[in-house]
Amino acid sequence: MAEHTGGLTEEFSGEHTIDPSPTHPNLTNPTLDLSTALNNTDPTTTYLLTRLNLPPTTPLTLALFPLPPAGEKPTAPLIALVQVTIWCSSSERRLTLQGIYDALMGRFVWYRENPDGAWTRSIRHLLSLKAMFVKVQLHSNPESTSQGTTYWTFDISQGEGDKRVRQRLYPGRAPVLEAAGESDVAELGDSD
Description:
Keywords: DNA-binding, Nucleus. The protein is mainly α.
């Protein structure tokens, strides 16, 4: 297990760190209380705390992510925001797509100011691309012909990779540098 130093890992957020102390101003209204965190054996919560480089006693909540200056987008990677949102914003550990949007808009002003922005498409793309995000279709009435409600859940046992191998836009064409060998690359530059 990675050593916990009290900040987000560089992979998730670059140079930004979080002080997980109880006096930190962003740790208000945690959804996972301290007693649960202290006795936590849940692998997904452990995974999130490890990936965020936080001590195992840290309550998981969107408030862990610092508020950016007014008018600026949050600096945390979208995948980290979506993971914590799904895992911590619902006691069932699942949210509808709109529930994910609402939770992010509730925490970050930038998302509220850009409700129809590209970030919504990025979230849909992320949910459909990454294997750890699982779509769950629930029917309120088994005899109903309606689609029911679609929820998204977060299952680390599915792995961190993509759900499927991504195909190139033009499968028969390889980029010049990718198709060329090492010696061919030098020749391409000297062709004047």
